[in-house]
Amino acid sequence: MLTRRTISSFMAACGLALAFCAGGSADAQEFVYRGKAANGPTVDEYLKQVGPEARFVAHGSLTIDGKRMNCGKRPTVLNPNFDSWGGAFPGFLILNIKKIAGLTTQVKLYVYSHECGHQFIGADELKADLFAIRRGVKWGWLDAHGIEEICTFISKLKGDAVHPPGPTRCKLMRNRFRELTDGTAQRASSAPPSGARMLGPPY
Length: 203
Ligand SMILES: [Zn+2]
What we know:
This protein has 2 domains: 2-100, no CATH class; 105-199. 44% of the residues lie in helices and 10% in strands. It has 8 helices and 7 strands, in the order αβαββββββαααααα. A hairpin with a 2-residue loop joins β3 (63-64) and β4 (67-68). The radius of gyration is 16 Å and the shape is globular. It starts with a helix and ends in a 15-residue tail after the last helix. Bound molecules: zinc ion.
């Protein structure tokens, strides 16, 4: 399969870091490039490898269920053949629009923001989760209902060599959401994000 082949070639590129390159198995949750950034594919190389079905979305042009999203200046590749919901390579993100289609809006935005988190904080999965939650609160797209949807989604995942079990991730994200909203979760969806802006670093 195209995806398998593509990932194999990237895994080969990982060289000594091979053991840390997840994503080749059928139950892969996500592919995050864990080799040296300089050895990762450029977005053009990636597009060439995955073929014509993938679509390049420039920085500033991505919308998810009508919400404009960005991750600094990083572009996104929409790849319907990707092994997982989303992924991260140095300098660009991947979304599998086919796979995220059945998810609720807040879970989709979480997936995108988690991958964005890898761009800023590196390979750590829990930190990428918390980055997404902080963004959701700050930007005003995450409310108490959404955090439960994310928990339902993530709790089904058992975890793997690099991803802690889903229930653990849910618990940490729920706690962080409560800390950030400080009991104002019920109002979060209608309140402007300006109040939350002071609660986290300026991502
Ligand atoms: Zn991740």
